[in-house]
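mind reviewing both lines:
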Amino acid sequence: MDGIINVLDCVAYCQPHDAALAIWDSALQQGLTDLQSLGTLQFGPRARALVAEATPFADSGLETFLRTRLSWLRIPLRFQTWLHGHRVDFLIGDRLVVQVDGRDHVGAQREKDNRHDAVLRSRGYTVLRFTYAEIVHSWPEVQDAILDAIAHGLHLEPTR
């Protein structure tokens, strides 16, 4: 079995960029390696690009996909941000929260998230929540929903 460094190097060249980055983020998040160590290695250009972009803070590959697919926006995109006592997956601008629900997002976790969504809405945030199937199989619709919210200024702090 190959070591994690060789696997990551192979992934950099064998997978599309967003899939490779999701794998790299996952390796970092699980503590299989760290950015400091990866930064010292003599990788080729594709792997070096992944080192520059990878983060240990993505909780899932879905978050990585969303982060990379929205990186072209010229609006602040923060991920794993704390708002009113809980982390949110993404905060776009000042007021647009985007939550990513994995395949197993049900039961008590879902109920807790619904309560937090209600708190955020009561405090002026817009919350968009997308499922695994939507992000993986219907990305254009997800992107359109996010861009529509931005076009309507839902990411901006209200003017007083």
Remarks:
- The radius of gyration is 17 Å.
- The CA atoms of residues 46 and 120 lie 39 Å apart.
- The beta strands are 77-83, 86-92, 96-101, 126-131.
- The domain at 61-151 is CATH 3.40.960.10 (Endonuclease; Chain A).
